[in-house]
Amino acid sequence: MPPLLSLCDINKEFTVAGRRQRVLEQLNLNLNAHSSLAIKGDSGSGKSTLLHLIGGLDKPDSGEIWFDNNPIHSMGDAAISEIRRSRISYIFQDYQLIPTLSTRDNIRFQAVLSGRQDEVFTDQLIEQLDLTDSLDKLPPQLSGGQQQRVAIARALVHKPDLILADEPTGNLDNRNSARAIDLLLGAVKVAGSALIMVTHSDEMANALERVLTLEGGKLIDLSKEPIQPS
Ligand SMILES: Nc1ncnc2c1ncn2[C@@H]1O[C@H](COP(=O)(O)OP(=O)(O)O)[C@@H](O)[C@H]1O
Ligand SMILES: [Mg+2]
Questions:
Q1: pTM of the prediction?
Q2: Residue 85: domain span
Q3: pLDDT > 80? residue 189
Q4: What is the domain count for the chain?
Q5: With a 6 A CB cut-off, is 40 part of the ligand 1 pocket?
Q6: Residues within 5 Å of ion ligand 2 by Cβ?
């Protein structure tokens, strides 16, 4: 089976105050359906930029991004929006819930938008993520941990093919982070989605099937680097 996602020779640079900065350089990646990948890397190494390109929020300067036969690198906004509504979803560090909608409606809104409603799965997610008592509350009435669990439910409710999570527990304490990641991984398994998660935490990264590090504009597998003689 071909990979769900393929990135081929991706280049991306930004110009800030007249200075060009190369962020991604000849980057390659293949990701299979239903698999999970953690991406580590120093702050400013280009992790968020990479997720933006995969999610179609920005375009590479050159190179190709294929998502299940869709050329994300060259598709127009309307076609990309369609894919983002139903097949690729994002989990952000700052949750980005709709503040005027209850927990129930934040989750339902995404389900309706995707055209992939499944009431039984929605109820299962709500229970699994321990959100039953929060259903009528608005995001500002929830703790950080609860808000992140709503964001996870919203990202998964339509069983997207791919979930992009950008430091999803960056605003949570250790205990809440560990819980959110456990719940996220459990729910991803049930939904059958593939997951790419950016994280600074070794512990979280190691909970995923594969760990790569973004360094020098490329994704490298540090576990396969030859050990340097001391
Ligand atoms: N829209 C942008 N305009 C200019 N520079 C940007 C933009 N987005 C990111 N950068 C720069 O690209 C580099 C990588 O940023 P980012 O992808 O956010 O890194 P990370 O998520 O790994 O911390 C940084 O130096 C950042 O300043
Ligand atoms: Mg970032």
A1: 0.93
A2: 36-59+79-209
A3: yes
A4: 1
A5: no
A6: 47-48
